[in-house]
Amino acid sequence: MSRLFDSATEFDSALGERRAVSAARAWQRALELTAPITRNPARILPTVIEEGARRFREKPALLSERESLTYRELMERSNRYARWALDIGLEKGDAVCLLMPNRPEYLAVWLGITSVGGVAALVNTNLVGASLAHCVNIARPKHIIVAAELLPNCLPAGLTGDARIWAHGDGCDGFPRVDHAANLYSGETLARSQRRDVTIEDCALYLYTSGATGMPKAANVSHGRLLQWSSWFAGMMDTRQDDRLYNCLPMYHSTGGVLATGAVLIAGGSVVIREKFSANQFWSEVVRWDCTLFQYIGELCRYLLQAEANPCEMRHRIRMCCGNGLRPDVWSAFKDRFGVPQIFEFYASTEGNVSLFNIEGKPGAVGRVPPYLAHRPPAVLVQVDYEKGEPVRDMRGCCIRCRAGEPGEAIGKLRNGSPSVGAWFEGYTNDEATEQKILRNVFEPGDAWYRTGDVMRQDERGFFYFVDRLGDTFRWKGENVSTTEVSEALCAFPGIGQALVYGVAIPGCDGRAGMATVVARVDLDLAALRRHLLNCLPSYAVPLFLRVRSELELTATFKPIRNVLQRQGYDPASAGDVWFHSKEQQAFVRVDQHLYVRIQQRQIHL
């Protein structure tokens, strides 16, 4: 500080003013970087990366243990994939599914495909069986690129259609090698005659989201949206040429695959890519790679806070971390223990038009609308009937806005064609799924709003706080879990006639753990059920708790009483027989009072 203060109150006031000024500058940078997007429709993200390659040449762009690419090498590699896509006859709008672990090559592949008008469907690499087949099939791909180590998961998945499978890497006899094929082409910039007319309105990616109900849906993500995300976060984070961002989040998600990489690359910085998160190696690698930024989800921060002390955890040069889902009870402890100067929390969804940003660093808040942007708020909260999962309407049939502090569903007004790409809602590959996310006649006849399915509250200062998620989806270990998908997997097992899946809270854990109450015969083979679930669901979607009953209580409309079961949870004193999916014993074990207390106190691996 440049001078002494007469009191703590005066100091806090001065600090608040500095934060307000810093936040205002961040908003200004973000607005300035995104304003030209709709004025230059042919300038897409691959174009911006190409501009960076001419400028930064041999500067590292993507770094990893497996491989590293300079800006020149990244551009040349993506150009090779662009020529490969053209040579195999990929037309504008044709989809290519991509299943590959985190690595620099991953970005080069989809940059090349999308630069010539193809659509890259970034498939979750944890999926197996019917879930994997569903995600591939709804993209209707002409080609599927699979890392060699993931081929064993893909072959028995029952993929349909005429898509051609290409392997990437060694150990995949019987399939053409896409990496070998791409190496046959030139890495030089494509001539104008080789390019297609691709604009910000064209679809670039399919990113998968569980949404509110049902199996995963493929969200349409345009080139404009990719550039909007990258440019906005570059402005908010003030990314620079000397920044290095540590990214251990899945690159098939929008956060790890677009926000983290794009925001740094368009500024000339470098991205360090790790295949999977490791709490034990996190700080050592952040220091070894000399990183200044990292991307998080709330679970990641909690795991780091619970990990044993690391000598490197206070020797880093991190100036900011950016992400979402950081719990209020973790926020301050995380910031203090690891000496992170600034936490930039935000709220957004892959397909939605509601985005909130907490650049001020208010613990627990997901965002705030600055006073100078109050005329175009990104979100409005409306009262909700939680039993029906629908907004409450008044006598005129209009939705009712929430008061300050009152929880309600966040919705965003649809403004497709708006100069602000962030206001667009581009929907899914399925028209019916798209329509289900639109709320009509909200405040006036004919208006349309996007439903987030998320309940929030807003305080008198304008800060938004996440409360809960509506519908049939809950979040666990940083992933959205579809109750419908899990229920279908359970009911496919012999002996189970009905299944109700829901999320239950565990003290100190982000999101909700999966729990299922099933109607089944008394001789249900739990060991076989466990093997069945692990074969057809991602590990994070396998229910952590299981109740077996002879029947379920139903409402007057023959729906199971979910809220009663959720309230009883996994406490054996109220729920009776409950089984816990033990990672240590690799089995479902009965929950007694001793085990219940251990789970409540997080003394057991979840």
Strands, helices and their partners?
Elements: H1 8-34, H2 45-56, E1 60-63, E2 69-70, H3 71-87, E3 95-99, H4 104-115, E4 119-122, H5 129-139, E5 143-147, H6 151-154, E6 164-168, H7 178-183, E7 203-209, E8 217-222, H8 223-237, E9 244-247, H9 254-265, E10 270-273, H10 282-288, E11 293-297, H11 298-306, E12 320-324, H12 328-338, E13 343-347, E14 356-358, E15 367-368, E16 380-382, E17 384-385, E18 390-391, E19 408-413, H13 431-436, E20 438-440, E21 448-458, E22 463-469, E23 473-476, E24 479-482, H14 483-491, E25 496-504, E26 513-520, H15 526-536, E27 545-549, H16 562-568, H17 572-575, E28 579-582, E29 587-590, H18 593-600
Parallel strand pairs: 1-10, 3-4, 3-5, 4-7, 5-6, 9-10, 9-11, 11-12, 12-13, 26-27
Antiparallel strand pairs: 1-2, 7-8, 13-14, 15-22, 16-19, 17-18, 19-21, 20-21, 21-22, 23-24, 25-26, 27-28, 28-29
| CATH C-level category of the largest domain | Alpha Beta
Largest sheet: 8 strands, mixed
Helix count equals 18
Largest sheet strand order? 2-1-10-9-11-12-13-14
Helix content: 25-40%
CATH architecture label name of the largest domain: 3-Layer(aba) Sandwich
Q: Span between N and C termini? A: 45 Å
Number of domains: 3
Question: Would you tell me the overall average pLDDT?
Answer: 90
% residues in beta strands: 15-25%
**Class from helix and strand fractions:** alpha/beta
CATH topology of the largest domain: Rossmann fold
* Overall radius of gyration: 24 Å
Shape: globular
Low-confidence parts: none
